[in-house]
Design a protein that fits this description.
347 residues, eight-stranded mixed beta sheet, 8 strands, 15% strand
């Protein structure tokens, strides 16, 4: 081999090694980003955190509607960054996305538009983070978007994990009312029974009636949900201003609630019915609180039994209600780690 050819070959090998080392180093680099991204024609708030860029990506779909999880992520998901890159997204009408855009976008706040928003976020993450697919996790209201996104665009996701999974708002409400009535009767709780009798069985025609019902329901939920829960009031310091009087988080939460329920309970949320979405091309996992009075487990399981997917599993978390417990959070983390990472690693 000529000396010139040797030099060329050595240079090629050295350059290839340098590129490989650079890529490997980049893959192992931490990531911490927070920014507004153009999604669905408006700027929406997204944060991305993780200790290694090569890790699988989880996109969280928060509940509410309007209750963005960005301020609580440091507490709720502490330690997850070692194994996953975590993405929080303030949805249309929530958190800092609401602060950026205000109330003028209310006509666009539909289930369909926000499903499309979620798909756009997933597409952005796939390109931005150089991933083939990501993991989708949705809770409560976010579980509505999650099911719709997983059904519409399975090519974007390795799997879907739903907690506090909703199915049909009117059906969930009727089942919840029946369950609560039995609890109150069993306790001979006259104040609760009187309140429920005044309301009558749903459907109702006023948001005030739902609020009266929620007052009774929320009175019982702590008695049933005995599993330790994360401290709701603990937020990251950079989000503290969002919770002061006039803060964007509290304003968005109230704004979205009134929009999605509607003054006569005819808002977009009250018309949700996921039960026709049963065929999925990705694994589906449900993590359900034993005492979820908002979305009763029996209805969720009945929907789950109709689902056809490459793999599916239903988990029940003892002593847990609609809101997250530490035990539920651990399971939500363990499912992607044990069930989904092997799928991701096999690609």
């Amino acid at each position: 081999m000529s000396s010139i050819l040797k030099h060329v070959l050595y240079a090629f090998v050295a350059a290839t090694f340098a590129v490989s080392a650079t890529v490997s180093g980049a893959d192992r680099a931490p990531i911490s980003e927070e920014m507004f991204v153009k999604i669905g024609g408006i700027y929406q708030w997204i944060t991305i955190t993780g200790t290694e860029r090569r890790n699988p990506v989880i996109l969280f779909l928060h509940g509410g509607p309007g209750s963005s999880s960005s301020p609580f992520a440091e507490v709720y998901f502490a330690g997850w960054e070692k194994d996953f890159t975590l993405v929080q997204w303030d949805q249309r009408g929530a958190g800092r996305t609401h602060g950026k855009n205000g109330k003028s976008i209310e006509p666009t706040m539909t289930v369909e538009r926000m499903t499309e928003d979620g798909i756009e976020v997933a597409e952005y993450l796939r390109e931005h983070l150089h991933k083939q697919k990501i993991i989708l996790v949705g809770g409560s209201w976010g579980s509505i978007l999650g099911i719709r996104m997983a059904h519409a665009r399975p090519d974007l996701f390795y799997a879907y994990v739903g907690y506090a999974q909703a199915t049909n708002w009117q059906g969930d409400l009727a089942a919840s009312h029946s369950w609560l009535l039995k609890i109150a009767q069993g306790k001979d709780d006259r104040p609760a029974l009187d309140a429920l009798n005044v309301l009558g069985a749903p459907p109702w025609d006023s948001i005030d009636k739902w609020l009266s019902y929620a007052k009774v329901m929320n009175g019982y939920q702590p008695e049933l949900a005995t599993a330790p829960m994360p401290p709701f009031g603990t937020v990251a310091s950079k989000y503290e201003a969002d919770f002061k009087n006039g803060g964007v988080w509290l304003e968005a939460n109230d704004f979205s609630f009134r929009h999605f329920w509607g003054p006569t309970l005819c808002g977009p949320l009250t018309r949700v019915d996921l039960t026709s979405l049963t065929d999925f091309k990705i694994p589906i996992f449900f993590v359900k609180g034993e005492f979820d009075l908002t979305c009763p487990p029996d209805l969720t399981r009945a929907y789950f039994e109709k689902i056809r997917a490459p793999r599916k599993k239903f988990y029940v978390v003892p002593g847990t209600g609609h809101n997250l417990s530490w035990a539920e959070l651990k399971l939500i983390r363990d499912v992607p780690f044990t069930e989904v990472r092997p799928i991701e690693n096999a690609k």
